[in-house]
Amino acid sequence: MTLPASDVVLHSDAEEVLRTLEASPDPKLRSIGRRVRAYRPLLLVDCLHGEVVPRSSIPKDLVRQYGIENLYVEDLPDFWRMLYSIAKSAGQRYVIVLTIVNHKDYSRWFPGRHR
Length: 115
Known about the structure:
This protein is an alpha+beta fold. Helices cover 39% and strands 27% of the residues.
């Protein structure tokens, strides 16, 4: 079963990281940026594509920072992760890409998760 979204939007935090990745001279970092862009059509077709983070496991810092009630994770190259949430407005479902993080930052938020 797929659950389509009407749009995929980038939070300013994700937008900033994505710009940095895409402008990097490092080909590995640029490939992470390309993968983030490649997820857009997938998430429009199925916004439940990523791994669900159980509500009880969503870091309180992320809840405070972004005001989210749900969280999904997509794996990216070189152990980076894309964190996103699904929201509804006026009967439309949309994906909000919250941030794109490296392994060190992800591990700080999810210390017990070995993925």
